[in-house]
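Bug report

Summary: structure tokens for Cytochrome P450 differ between web form and batch submission.
Environment: batch mode, default settings.
Steps: 1) Submit the sequence below via batch. 2) Compare with the web form result.

Sequence submitted:
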Amino acid sequence: MPMPPSPSMSPREQTFGWMTRPYELLARCRQEVGDVFTIDFRGHGQYVLFSDPEHIHQILTGDPAVFHAANGLLEPFLGAHSLLLLEEERHKRERRLMMPHFSRRQIHGWGDQIEEVADRMIDGWRVGEEMPMRETAQSVALGLIDRLVFGLDGEANHDRHDALHRCFDEILSHPHFNIALIGQFGERLAGSPAWQQLQESLAEMDRLVREEIAERRATGRRGDDIMSLLMDAEYEDGESLSDDELRDELVTLLATGHETTATSLAWAVHWVWSHPPVLERLRAELATLGPDASPSQIAELDYLQSVVLETLRINPVVPIIARELQEPVQIAGYELPAGVTVAPVIYLLHRREDLYDEPGQFRPSRFLERDYKHNEFMPFGGGVRRCLGMHLALYELQILLARIATRVELRLCDEEEVRPVRRMVTIAPSGGVRFEVERVGA
């Protein structure tokens, strides 16, 4: 049986589109071919992409022994022991170990710390100052990781973590990093000065994280931070995480935690401040709580939740979820062979007109009017590999957005249209969403 149809573009055009403007590529493919189509990525073979909720449900709830995560490209960055790369029993074991530390109860205990970091960011803004929200939010997200993952006080001047922040920025903003994620293209760069610089940054990141682990082991320092919890956690057989496992999970938390939060907050500011009625309604809801509301009370606000969910619907940070077939599977009437990568497309799912009225419009109230099923709205993936930090990400976004809306008058000042561009595996706003501060309140 033949594979699902492909778009008229050449494999080279498909790969280049995926690396540079993935949203445009995906939309063009569905318009040209339909809900199921095949893309040929140079260096990584054929991907079969799906945007029908039932097909997506079949993939994400299928046998984990058959549907493996296709995240191998990230191994040089995250490490072989990262939860994102583990499979079957190893994945299940590691996830079971980590899950209690990302429960709603655990996360809501961090609300005051999240709010404090948000206020410190805002206190540093000056009237008339112009800056990009994504880069500003990245600094805040890294500050949150310092607090929540490593237990550092926000005022601490920690040279190692300053250096680690610089390393991450150098890696994620490196012009060859996205290309390095595409097999044949990355191989062609090996040996070049820019490639060597990227490898040096990766090695420095590894050294800094391992230094932190060694220091904690030597001093026995512990707190209520995630690193302490993971160091003390034990599997069912009494074993604990090795240094290699701990290193890979910490790098994964650093990479996924700060990049996704910063990007989503930038998109939220772009959409909310581009729609004055949304901002007005959001501020009116926040005003009902009064100045002494706790972070947990703020996070329970219905419209605030809807604004965050609509942001993640219209601009999912990660556009697809990839699974590599370990044996033949029939999906959507196609008999797909082992070795093929199947990929639910979150971006296209969230733009379906049969699920979302006027899907291209930013309309948070849609989440007050209808409850969407797991296979209809999935900014954090689904099934046994759904993002472990989902509740933390939502909580951070709600508190950060609420503090900005409550304390700051700002004006968006991008001269060109803000469009989605690739940054590592995430899709960020071009220009970072530039804004000018007009007033900062208490």
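Above is the batch result. After comparison, the two runs are identical; trailing whitespace caused the diff. The chain has 20 helices and twelve strands. The CA atoms of residues 299 and 398 lie 6 Å apart.
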